[in-house]
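Hi R.,

Quick one: here's the GTP cyclohydrolase 1 sequence you asked about.
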Amino acid sequence: MIDKEKIKKAVYDILEAIGEDPNREGLLETPDRVARMYEEIFSGLHTDVMDVIKTFKEDEHQEIVIVKDIPMYSMCEHHLLPFMGVAHVAYLPRKGTILGLSKLARIVDVLAKKPQLQERLTSEIADTIVKAANPLGVAVVVEAEHLCMTMRGIKKPGAKTVTSALRGLFKTDQRSREEVMLLINGK
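And here's the predicted structure, written out as tokens:
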């Protein structure tokens, strides 16, 4: 679990190290606030994503299912700065095994709540859906802005990073891939 006392001490030390007075009124509660925030935004470290997934049988449905524009927030593991954007998740059920629509968003949420790389996050979402539902195909596209590129370093606000992960038919069959990408892109 998350050691909030250790985080509070570290934040206090960081404030001192940057030349701030951690005992001034505006900063007195900052170490505690940061510790509580870290407990929330890194909760994916202590959650088994498979525990949030539920599948259903719907024998009549073997068509593409897409949930688009799922808001996503994570922390870049290289700088511990946020990256945020949206995830588009699509899958093609096999033999009527479908996922609850909210579970697709929950998968994104749990996997994003840890120090992460966008590339890895995109693949983890796809691989989790494969493991949970054994679909014929999975496509995941994540579009995000990284504050490590916006407020430091190259300083390019508005630049978006787009990653994709394709599994099954969406990887091997060109027509299926084209169809799902057209649907994800809104065309």
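The longest strand covers residues 65-76.

Cheers,
M.
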